[in-house]
Amino acid sequence: MAFQEIAIDSLEFNPFQKISKEWMLITAGDEIKSNTMTASWGGLGIMWGKNIATVYIRPQRYTKEFVDQNDTFTISFLAEEYRKALNVCGSVSGKNVEDKWKEAGLHPYYVDGTTAVEEADLVFVCKKQYHQTMKPECFDVTENDDKWYPDKDYHEMYMAEIVKVLKKG
User: Fold this and answer.
1) Which residues contact 94 (CB under 8 A, 6 or more apart)?
2) Whole-structure pTM over 0.70, yes or no?
3) Domain 3-168 falls in which CATH fold?
């Protein structure tokens, strides 16, 4: 089943459910080399008059190198039947296996100079707009720093314009 481009304002889903409970794959790279990772933290909204996706990536994640080296990345949402693949992509580093795609039972899908996940139901193609490392002094509730960052491996926040939405059709 092929992807079809759809208008972003035609989307109808609960972003809290979609991101936090169903999870997403953040993917970057090209046809030569790419990597993907599972994420359950992120957001969708408007910034600078643009439709923005916000994702958070810890410094030790291999996918971060691909996101940093490219202007675009994708966010792919998969059906529940791919939960095992999502778990693999969240626990296995592409640095440590010969082929993370094969390990997860997934396939890269190349679009607009970046990579998405062929098995996805929904893909956002995103163009980076802003990034910043979270800082301990910026926590208004310090227990969040203590609870989520005991190793002080603060997430990098990426805000990216959603430039294309693809849906399995």
Assistant:
1) 35, 36, 62, 63, 100
2) yes
3) Pnp Oxidase; Chain A (2.30.110)
